[in-house]
Amino acid sequence: MTEPSIPTSDVVSVEFADHVAVVWLDRPGKRNALAPEFWIEFPDVLEALGNAEEVRAIVIAGRGPSFTVGLDLMAFGPAVMAGDIAAITGETSPSDVAKRLNTYKQIKLMQHTFSSIADNPKPVIAAIHGHCIGAGVDLATACDIRLAAADAVFSVRETKIAMVADVGTLQRLPSIIDPGRVAELVYTGRDWTAAEALEMGFVGSVHDDAASVLEAAVDLAMQIAQNSPLAVQGSKAVLNASRRAKVHEDLDRVALWNAAFLYSDDLAEAIQAFLEKRPPEYKGQ
Length: 285
What we know:
By secondary structure, this protein is α/β, with parallel strands linked by helices. It has one domain (12-275): Alpha-Beta Complex (2-enoyl-CoA Hydratase, Chain A, domain 1). It has helices at 36-51, 73-81, 96-118, 135-142, 169-172, 179-188, 194-200, 210-225, 229-261, 265-276; strands spanning 12-17, 20-25, 57-62, 124-128, 131-133, 145-149, 153-155, 192-193, 206-207. The longest helix is centred in the C-terminal third of the chain and has 33 residues, at 229-261.
């Protein structure tokens, strides 16, 4: 196939084969921690792939030892501790209201990053290995299909760092697995294995290692790509139609919640504890 033109990125790369695009999270040295530029560049790449007629299915995978360890706290942490996530984008917050508005805008931008997967017209398959933590679960829940390597470890980690997950997990995970199981995983923030993910229906299959799960995901994507793209993309549109509006409504609700309540003493303590590599001491304030 003729390879489409894709925006360049320092944190994401793309490979093509037989109408399938493999999108790589490409910060292996940082275990694919999602740095500030990721949230800007990734949706541009997904939009280009969604618009490319040559592409009929997409696989998302991670280079190196992990799929992704989630939000890059080394990049975002100092801004959170200063009380202004939007400072990362160069904005200023002259008042408390402006700070909260900037936070709301930043959360909406980050939500858009993963909605670019869920709302993409092409089927998207996640090939997960190693860590899939925090925002990694948000990313995975936005995919149509998830496959895992046997070493995959998942966690809705936000609760452990005094945050309400706000970029998709709380909105999409209850439609994938039992809501009671969702509550347990979210409230505890505990790790869960690939075997448990398979048992609960979060992933469709488990494979020996990173190479084999990628091979399985690409093979599945190629099977999808052999079908009529009109039929496949129409099927995704119909499957998504009934839940898309509710997901976006609920995403806006959590964005408003975190814009109001994100900057707690507990969150500052969580970031400080992370940077100092010690357990946090929460006071509920």
